[in-house]
Design a protein that fits this description.
Layout: E1 4-13, E2 21-31, E3 36-40, H1 47-55, E4 62-67, E5 70-71, H2 77-80, E6 84-87, H3 101-109, H4 123-134, H5 153-166, E7 171-175, H6 183-200, E8 204-208, H7 211-216, E9 220-225, E10 228-234, H8 235-239, H9 243-253, H10 259-262
Parallel strand pairs: 3-8, 3-9, 6-7, 7-8
Antiparallel strand pairs: 1-2, 1-4, 4-5, 9-10
Length: about 270
């Protein structure tokens, strides 16, 4: 059974107005357990809209979204939380600046559970947090009481990544989660992401503008254009891809109007 099934989803913003925008135009996608799928496309292609549709940030106009056999299409965002982990582009999203690392992780640990009066972090949880943070190789396992707001962007995004995977989600959504970081830090976060996703067998969707990253990470790549999936490649065929192949495909699907999008994509 597929972990994620997207069936013919459509989303139009501001319908019937001068600002009408067809964001998703009949998306169909299935991910099997352990798939790490990268999504590439120019601005307005529908990449982040797809992730927002899955997470329930907004409801789709038509179609179905099924995770692990459960139809979540009409569920509000908070009821989808037990199924999903998500890391955003902005390192400040997903963590509370004034709370410590361990307090943030405790919230993540209890995601999807009923809230009770008990708040204190248990000894067992603290050891788990240390163990998971040690995967990062940043020494954060020895800084559990540090306020998250005092961390660098890379450190904070690293903590967010651990929080998103602390309770193994059915699906991990990575929405250009290295775009706001400097190149060296971004490369480190991507390497961590690959190690965590592979090590824990987490089914993942990663949106990126970087064609090299889209090729180098994951076992599957999809290309989006004007709200549609126009290219889907996996396995050995994906490993054999070059940036020039993706550029040629973009030129093909855009009918020669790719010049503006080319500036938005990193090689």
């Amino acid at each position: 059974m597929a972990v994620l099934e997207i069936k013919n989803i459509h989303k139009t913003f501001n319908p019937g107005t001068i600002n009408e925008k067809v964001a998703l135009n009949g998306i169909n996608l299935e991910l099997e357990e352990g798939d790490f799928c990268t999504i590439i496309g120019g601005n307005g292609a529908g990449k982040s809209t797809t992730l927002n549709a899955i997470s329930g940030t907004w409801m789709v106009d038509e179609g179905q979204i099924i995770i692990d056999g459960s139809d979540i299409t009409k569920l509000p965002e908070h009821l989808r939380a037990p199924y999903l982990g998500r890391v955003f582009q902005d390192p400040r999203i997903g963590t509370a600046s004034t709370m410590s690392i361990e307090e943030n992780m405790a919230i993540a640990k209890r995601r999807g559970e009923k809230r009770g009066l008990r708040w204190g972090v248990t000894k067992a949880e603290r050891e788990e947090f240390r163990e998971r943070l040690s995967e990062l190789g940043l020494g954060l396992e020895d800084r559990l009481s540090t306020k998250v707001g005092l961390l660098s962007g890379g450190q904070r995004q690293s903590v967010t990544l651990i929080m998103a995977t602390l309770k193994k989600p059915k699906l991990l959504l990575l929405d250009e989660h290295t775009a706001a970081l400097d190149p060296k830090t971004a490369a480190t976060i991507l390497s961590m992401t690959d190690r965590i996703v592979s090590g824990h067998g987490i089914t993942s969707l990663m949106v990126t503008h970087n064609m090299k990253d889209a090729i180098n990470y994951g076992n599957r790549l999809i290309m989006m254009y004007e709200g549609r999936i126009v290219y889907d490649v996996r396995g050995e065929e994906k490993k054999a891809l070059h940036v020039s192949d993706l550029l040629a495909k973009f030129d093909e699907v855009s009918g020669g109007t790719f010049a503006n999008d080319r500036m938005m994509l990193a090689k």
